[in-house]
Specification:
homodimer; alpha+beta; 16% helix; binds FE2/S2 (inorganic) cluster; 90 residues
């Protein structure tokens, strides 16, 4: 009876599990141009058409690399404080 | 005996707990100017001194808002693919 007790496999016990999305562990960009090894964008500043242009640094913009204000929703949802880079012609 | 059994408090049972850093849940910026509600930077493009200047979008740079190459370590550690915004004078 003693050795029978020891032979009860671990998996016979009920287990609790926690599912963690591996992708999300420290990843900043979850969706934009994931097929690229590194997402780099260039701006020729002499070609800027407007006095002020906002560029995204939160990786949540629907118009990336431009900022579309999506950082507001991200900051509210996570308690973060990220915002865009503003390019000014004057 | 029946009602005595029901009165055993939940906290008498051994509990397993998972500690999650609330800050890290979806947060992009973990360290830079966290005292600010929203980190926004401005560049007057006519004042750029070099032909090419890289601005950080990974929030891991030691010279933020400039890129110091810290995105390389972040991408390697997490499998991410973020990179800077390059401002070019020509
Ligand atoms: S939408 Fe990303 S910084 Fe504004
Ligand atoms: S160090 Fe952040 S993009 Fe290069």
């Amino acid at each position: 009876a003693f050795s029978q007790g020891l032979s009860v496999p671990n998996r016979a016990r009920p287990r609790r599990s926690v599912v963690v999305r591996a992708e999300a562990a420290g990843t900043i960009n979850t969706a934009i141009r994931k097929e690229e090894d590194k997402v780099v964008d260039s701006v020729v500043v002499t070609e800027l058409s407007k006095p002020l242009t906002a560029y995204c640094r939160c990786w949540r913009s629907g118009t990336f690399p431009l900022c579309d204000g999506g950082h507001v929703k991200h900051n509210k949802a996570t308690g973060d404080n990220v915002g865009p880079l503003l390019l000014k012609k004057q």
